[in-house]
Amino acid sequence: MSGEAHDFGTAPPPSRPARLMALFMSAIIVSAGLVAVFIGLAVCYEIFVRSVLGRPVIWVEEITTYLVGYITFVGMGAALYEGSHVGIEFLTHRLNRPVRTAVWTIANLLMLALAGLIVDMSWTYWSDAWNSGERSTSLLSVPLWIPYLCFLVGSVILFLVQLFLIVSAIGSRRMRTSSGGPGL
Asked: Does residue 103 or residue 85 have the better pLDDT?
């Protein structure tokens, strides 16, 4: 510290890993938004071609379904990072601080374990599709390892975000208690 008085009401500047994580999550959110715009345009294209030109479009439904999977699975880590997942706080707000901290710790460790299980399951699906060469049964015959990759990447991101949030909370708690500030 440079001799300045620390205000415990404000957060310290984010660390380099925190800035990188924020940048990565912003990129994921922007990519999901761009994919959503593409889905909207593709559906409008399909409606126009089918209704006005009377011609079938074979790719829109399948591709947009895979892209919704991208938004869902890759976006779940960003949603966790942003705090957008559903949380039930009406009980935890009534707990005293040590019990609330214990509940937070248990819940976050369980979430980390669940994210790890999802990584393992998605790896199994992806590697099976990769090794078997399995393809979709549609006219596009998309190799299924491609859409399964969204599940794998998304679950890895979810695991890493959960781990980041736990480590960040532990680090900020240590900093507050070692500098004489209030602990969690």
From this structure: 103
Residue appearing with tokens 């009377």? 54
Total tally of structural domains belonging to the chain: 1
Phi, psi of 143 (to 5 degrees): -60, 125
Q: How far apart are CA 179 and CA 150, in angstroms?
A: 42
* Residue 182, pLDDT above cutoff 80: no
The answer to whether residue 90 sits within a structural domain is yes
**CA proximity to 105, closest of 167, 36, 175, 183:** 167
Q: Look at residue 6 and tell me if it is in a domain.
A: no
Closest CA to 160 of 24, 6, 11, 12: 24
Query: Cα separation of 135 and 102, whole Å?
Result: 46
Give the domain range for residue 157.
16-178
pLDDT at 131 over 90: yes
* Main-chain dihedrals φ then ψ at residue 135, nearest 5 degrees: -130, 160
pTM of the model: 0.80
The predicted-structure confidence for 7-54, as pLDDT tens digits, reads as follows 445 555 678 888 999 999 999 999 999 999 999 999 999 999 999 999
Q: Does the residue 5 lie in any domain?
A: no
